[in-house]
Write a structure and sequence with these properties.
The complex is a heterodimer.
Chain A (H helix, E strand, L loop, with lengths): L2 E8 L15 H24 L10 H22 L18 H21 L4 H6 L1 H11 L2 H27 L12 H20 L3 H30 L3 H8 L7 H24 L8 H23 L4
Chain B lengths: L3 E6 L8 H10 L9 E9 L2 E9 L8 H5 L5 E4 L5 E4 L9 H5 L6 E2 L5 E2 L5 H4 L6 H5 L5 E5 L6 H8 L2 E3 L10 E4 L1
Parallel strand pairs in B: 1-10
Antiparallel strand pairs in B: 1-8, 2-3, 4-5, 6-7, 9-10
The chains are: A mainly alpha, B alpha+beta.
Chain lengths: 313, 180
């Protein structure tokens, strides 16, 4: 006769029972856009530090402007997720040192000026005509190479903070075993860098820069695969609840979507295509970068949805 | 400093849900939501199966993850009132991090948008009364008091009876104990 361990909970609170589902599409979309913009900032910073701003067709000058737009979209998604929207300003009347979300709120405030400063380095012509003040500010900034270097370094530092915090946000929520891995920070950062390199590849009109971005992306995608292996090693060598959480992706309900869309279509296939492209076996197309970006979005959806389903009892 | 907690005798609980009804009435908990509930846990091998009935709620943890993750300080420990964990409604933005952080799933979003949960009936405790669920229990299986006071009823029960807390392994240091 088999052992019985059966728990029946007489509670049916909306969003909590029968399984926790407090975060819908808004949070994965925000985490994806936050990671993507973090990657764009780091790429911009690195391009500026390598003094690539002289290249006329380079993508770097587009990345910050697009980054501002994408991050604002992400923050809109985050706002839409709030249940007590009229009180959102309460984020900025305090700093809670133990709360990654509080860190994130303040990091976002630092990110915008850094993005804006690198955007000012090359303002698009249409905007220059509309707002001559932007032209003057841009000229003033470009005349100060020391300051440009500072802007580049702030892009790298704040971009890294933004990319890591989106992972730490989940991993600090100890009640959800699937998220109990400090590797989520680096994983989300590398995934953000990979999506950003793919995005920059799509908008770049500079052939040499495109090749550089594809080579970098191949490195990021390979690093992502290694981080996934370590992520599973960590969970599978921990407690029973962590092993059960890992099984959500290893045989459980999220297995197909994780392995097909996140790993297969989002990492392995574009990595193979891009490896062939850099060896000049096939031509560079938009397919691989589009798959990388879609895979980055799928990663956030799978981890946010599956993580909420993981539990201690 | 006091640390308020509960000791619940599972050998006396009959799962009548009077505690649930009392809480909903006392605290005006909206329809379709509850701050406390009954759990039934069956363990063993037939025919020697043991059924434990438990009245459950927020554990008012000594290491509350909901307080640590709250970005505005809305979730807080009321130091002056036996370290009860409370939510300041006018600070809560409804981000739901606290709902995700609670291994007991003790929280929910009130229809008005803020995070809500058991308060140990803080408004009654301030007046020297017991929480409503404790006061109405027909089998007197629930006890409320200061866990840090060795002369309190709750501390004495923990001293003399076999007990366990829920998910102690989650590292939250819960303040509700179940006598077995």
């Amino acid at each position: 006769m088999a052992d019985i361990t059966e728990l029946t909970v007489h509670r049916l609170n909306p969003m909590v029972d029968p399984g926790l589902h407090v975060w819908g599409w808004e949070i994965p979309v925000y985490l994806f856009l936050g990671g993507l913009v973090a990657g764009l900032m780091i790429l911009t910073g690195v391009f500026l530090l390598r003094r690539r701003q002289a290249r006329p067709r380079a993508s770097w000058s587009l990345l910050s402007g697009l980054g501002i737009a994408l991050l604002s979209l992400g923050m809109l998604a985050l706002f839409l997720d709030l249940e007590h929207k009229a009180y959102v300003w309460r984020l900025y009347t305090t700093f809670q040192i133990t709360s990654p979300m509080s860190w994130g709120a303040w990091i976002l405030l630092l990110v915008y000026p850094a993005l804006l400063a690198s955007f000012l380095l090359r303002v698009p012509a249409a905007l220059r005509r509309l707002f001559p003040v932007l032209q003057r500010a841009s000229g003033w900034l470009r005349g100060r190479p020391g300051l440009v270097r500072w802007v580049a370094m702030l892009d790298v530092v704040f971009g890294t903070l933004l990319g890591i915090y989106t992972g730490i946000l989940l991993s600090s929520l100890g009640a959800r075993p699937l998220w109990n891995s400090a590797l989520l920070g680096p994983l989300f950062l590398v995934s953000g860098l990979s999506s950003a390199a793919a995005f920059a590849h799509l908008v770049s009109r500079d052939h040499e820069e495109s090749t550089l971005l594809v080579r970098a992306d191949n490195g990021f995608l390979a690093a992502e695969l290694v981080l996934f292996v370590l992520f599973f090693v960590g969970l599978l060598s921990a407690t029973q609840v962590h092993i059960q959480a890992a099984r959500l992706l290893l045989g459980g309900p999220f297995t197909a979507v994780f392995w097909v869309f996140v790993v297969g279509v989002g990492i392995v296939l574009p990595l193979a295509l891009q490896l062939l492209a850099v060896r000049r076996r096939i031509a560079h197309t938009a397919l691989a970068p589009v798959l990388v970006i879609a895979g980055g979005l799928a990663l956030r959806f799978v981890l946010v949805y599956a993580g909420q389903m993981s539990h201690w009892r | 400093m006091a640390r308020y907690g509960m000791v619940i005798d599972t050998t006396r609980c009959v799962g009548c849900m009077d505690c649930v009804v009392a809480c909903k009435t006392e605290n005006g908990v909206p329809d379709g939501y509850c701050r406390d509930w009954i759990s039934e846990e069956a363990r063993g091998t037939y025919p020697t199966v043991q059924l434990e009935l438990r009245s459950e709620r927020c554990n008012h943890c000594d290491r509350p993850p909901c307080v640590a993750c709250c970005p505005t300080g809305a979730s807080h420990v009321e130091e002056e009132l036996g370290r009860i964990v409370l939510v300041a409604h006018d600070l809560c933005i409804g981000c739901k991090a606290c709902l995700s952080s609670c291994p007991y799933d003790a929280r929910f979003i009130h229809p008005e948008g803020y995070a809500d949960k058991c308060t140990f009936c803080a408004h009654r405790v301030r007046k020297g009364l017991e929480p409503a669920c404790v006061a109405v229990c027909p089998t007197r299986c629930m006890h409320f008091g200061d866990l840090d006071d060795p002369h309190s009823e709750v501390a004495q029960l923990l001293e003399s009876r076999r007990h366990h807390a829920l998910l102690a392994e989650a590292g939250t240091s819960p303040s509700i104990f179940y006598l077995t």
